[in-house]
Write a structure and sequence with these properties.
The protein has helices spanning 25-32, 70-82, 151-161, 192-204; strands at residues 2-8, 11-17, 42-47, 54-60, 89-94, 97-104, 107-111, 116-124, 127-133, 137-142, 164-170, 174-181, 186-188, 211-215, 222-227, 230-236, 238-244. The chain is of the alpha+beta class. The protein has a 17-stranded mixed sheet that branches. A hairpin with a 3-residue loop joins β11 and β12. The chain is globular, with a radius of gyration of 17 Å.
Length: 249
Amino acid sequence: MQVVKYNASGNDFVIFHTFIKKDYSKLAQKLCHRQEGIGADGLIVLLPNATVDFEWLFYNSDGSVALMCGNGSRACAHYAYTQGLAPASMSFLTGAGKITSLVQGDVVASQLTPPKELAKSFSQEGREWYFYDTGVPHLVTLVDDLSAFDKTLAAKMRYAHNANVNFVFFDKKCLHVRTYERGVEDETGACGTGMAASFYALYLLGLVGDHAKVYPTSKEELELSVRDGVLFLKGKVSKIFETQLERFV
């Protein structure tokens, strides 16, 4: 089995394409294991689809299914284009619905699924929280310094609301985000839908305009924008390596 490892702004993924649609959760656990596998935040499997360029199956590193992943969408779009599976401007089906992506060299922009407010802002554990679905559910809280990120609190909120958890610092020019991801059950280098939820929360609060630069823990720059209520995520991706696997098949 031929697989490719990608990095997208601090999120890493193992990607392959196949004609066989089945449960790959066990394979995801093996391939994503940092010590005994390739090591990744998630596994992306591309499959043929009659109505769009392709569809995907997305698995977190623990084998759980995720409906959507912003950085994963950009990585798999680059993979699909370079593998000849889709044109540079493509559409594909995720668990959260159809999204579109545009590949321009090593820069990929994805139009995300329409954001939804899951609850009005609320106070819990001494913090104010905003709750949005940008493909998957995200809690967002604003902080004066990213050192305020609390993994214990993030894990508690994650299980209380079955959501990813984002701590956001806004310096009047750009956003800095630290994300605790469910399915990984730890802080990750980046989270595309988390950055999108953070940007959208600040946009609705009137703190940012319709576009902004966002920096995750990895420090890689991404651009978030909103047009007619639709979110767009843009940034660089990199192919790390390609290899043939035998022991995991």
